[in-house]
Amino acid sequence: MPLPEQDLYSFIDVTLSHLNKIAANEIVLRDPTIEFQSLVFSSHTGLVHLKGAAEGFAYLTASQQFLQHLSHFYRSRLGEDGGREIMTDIAESLAINWHKRFGPVLSFSEPHIFSTVPDDPMEIPSAVFVLPLDLHNEHAFFVLGISHSSAA
Amino acid sequence: MTGTEIFKHTAAYERDSRRIRLHAPEWKLLLAFDGQRTLAEVALSAEVSFAEAFSLTEKFLGQGWIAEQPITLEQYLKRTGAADLASIGAAVPPAVVLHAPKNAAALEAPQAAPAPSPRGPMRLSAVVDFIVSQADNALLGRLSAYRVFLRVPHELLQAEEIVSVNLVNDSSLIRTEALQKAIAEAVQEIVKRPLPDSVYAGA
Fold first, then answer.
1. Which of A79, A92, B145, B202 is most buried per CB count within 10 Å?
2. ipTM over 0.95 threshold
3. Is the pTM of this model over 0.80?
C-alpha cells in the first residue's frame, strides 16, 4: 500500500523529535525543496534504505559544525571521528524509531554512515524531498526519496 | 545554483590574487575552480560541504574572482550521458546529477519546440500554495506537493529545465502545455480537487 503524506510526515516528525531531544528544541526548519536532479551531501551522512510499503531511502546529512553543536548537548568534545560517531548514533536511533512508528509495513536497512559522498552508487527516485535544518546557523538536511509507486 | 555550474577564475582574480586575504579553507575552494569541473566536483575535491561551497561561491562571484564558464554541447552531453554510475564511483560529487537523458540520441535530432500553453504561464508558487492550502498544516501540504511532483514525468520537467521546486515562493513559470497538463492531472489525483484558474499568470 502506498504511503500518504501523513506517513511521509512521520519520517520528519520522528527525525525532528529526536534531534530536538538532543538539542533542547533548538532545531530550526528552513524552506524545503523538491529536487529532481541532485542530492545534497554534507560532511557526515546517515542513510537508511526503505523497503516494503515504500521503496527508497531517508537520510540525514550534516556539516561538521552542526554535529559539533550537537556534541555540546552531549556534553562531550568532538574528537577526530566525533562527527561520524554522532551521526552513527543518530542514524541508529532514527532507524529504530522509524521502525517503531511504521511496524512491519516498512523494513529499514542498517544505517549506512559515510563522509562527504556515498561509497556506492545510489539509485535516485525521480524526485527527493529536502528539508534544511539549522542549529545555531549551522546546516543539516533531512532527505526523503521514495519511488513514484510508493506515494501513489 | 545547482552544483552543476562550472566556474573559472577571472582576469580580476589573476590581477588581484596576491592582495586577496582569505581563510585557508576558502583558498582551497577558490583555487580548485579550474573551468573544467562542476561546482559540486570542486567542492568535493576541496573537502568543503555543498552548503558551504554554495555560500563561498556566491561570495567569490560577488567579488568578481570567478565567473561561470559556459560549456559546449559536446561537454554537456558527455556529462549528462553518464548512465553507468559504477564508472563514476567515489567521484560522484556532493550534489549528484544522476538522471541521464532517457535517450541521448534524441537530443541530437532536431525537435519541434514544445507548444506554449494557450492559457499563459502557470505560476509554480501558486500551484504549491494551492496544494498546501488543502492540507491540515504547511508541512503536510508540502509533502503532498512532493507526492504531486513524483507523478510528473521527469522528461517534461527536464524539457522546461525545472531541476528543483522551492516549496516557499518558487518564482518559476511553467510555459508548456504538456507540463501544465501533467501538473494539473497530478494535483487532481493527489489533492482530489482541480487547480484553480488563478494559478495561471494571465488569469
1. B145
2. no
3. no
